[in-house]
Specification:
The chain has 281 residues and is mainly beta. It has 3 helices and 16 strands.
């Protein structure tokens, strides 16, 4: 069996129902915020910086999907029929250091903890979204967030919007990508057995930290990790990160951005700008 881990920080993560013949174990990890702060079968990423977006997606406003459990979201929205899923869980990893501090680079233990499931759908860190007759490139899917998913819905009329969720919520692979302690993680993991040999999905990475926190200690990121027989990578369970740019850069705000000036007054040049879209308000 194979395992996929999905991860992002302060990100809107969207999966389409294109995951058709996947592998075996899927562990998807979602947004989390850094404080010093998937894989298509083709293993490719498309540049779409020329895309013009108008309007806002609709988040947590569908009564049917609002009543879904995490298992129902996975089996009805993330997976599209050609697989059997099991061991679905939604939560985060808490790092308990052997030292007095909680730095993820210390010796210690990662422990899984289930997220609380809010009775208010918009206050959750995972849920259903749809295009809402806008030009958003994905019709519908699952949204993962480091804050309340309702905060992802427009209009974007504030300079900065932050939801403090759970400072203990972290993830070992996301911390490895950024080299920083992670916070507010939203992690979805599950196993699956496919009827074929190909996995395909779509996602959009977004961050409230653009552009003012680029090249600072706040480095939002996204990862999609796959592990299983015949896979040998550097992440948990020998997983590989499928969410990488063609030249192996991870998907983070420090790796994908236009030129600008951050809150520290530091001027930075563009990096992988063809993948960056400056959303309208």
């Amino acid at each position: 069996m194979k395992k996929i881990t999905l991860a992002t920080f302060l990100v809107l993560l969207f999966f389409s129902g294109e995951i058709l013949a996947q592998k075996t174990i899927v562990s998807s990890r979602t947004p989390e915020k850094v404080l010093k702060k998937v894989n298509s079968a083709k293993n490719s990423v498309s540049a779409k910086s020329t895309l013009t977006l108008t309007g806002s997606i609709e988040v947590a406003e569908n009564e049917i999907y609002n009543d879904y459990s995490v298992e129902q979201l996975v089996n009805n929205m993330l997976i599209s029929g050609c697989v059997t899923t099991s061991n679905i869980r939604y939560g985060y990893y808490d790092f308990v250091s052997d030292d007095d501090d909680d730095d993820d680079d210390d010796e210690g233990t990662w422990t899984w903890i289930d997220h609380n499931w809010s009775s208010i759908p918009g206050n959750r860190q995972i849920g259903y979204f749809n295009q809402n007759n806008t030009t958003f490139p994905i019709d519908e899917g699952i949204l993962f967030a480091t804050g309340r998913i309702s905060s992802a819905e427009g209009p974007n009329n504030t300079g900065s919007d932050t939801d403090e969720m759970n400072r203990q919520a972290s993830d070992p692979d996301l911390a490895l990508i950024t080299g920083e302690r992670m916070y507010d993680a939203s992690v979805l993991e599950f196993d699956f057995v496919p009827n074929g040999t190909m996995i395909e999905f779509q996602f959009v990475f977004a961050s409230e930290e653009y552009l003012e926190y680029v090249e600072t200690k706040y480095n939002d990121a996204f990862g999609f990790f796959l592990s299983g027989p015949g896979i040998s990578g550097s992440y948990t369970n020998n997983a590989v990160n499928l969410a990488e740019l063609p030249h192996n850069d991870a998907v983070t705000i420090n790796n994908i951005h236009s030129a600008g000036t951050n809150v520290d007054g530091d001027v930075f040049g563009p990096k992988n700008e063809s993948y960056y879209i400056n959303n309208p308000s």
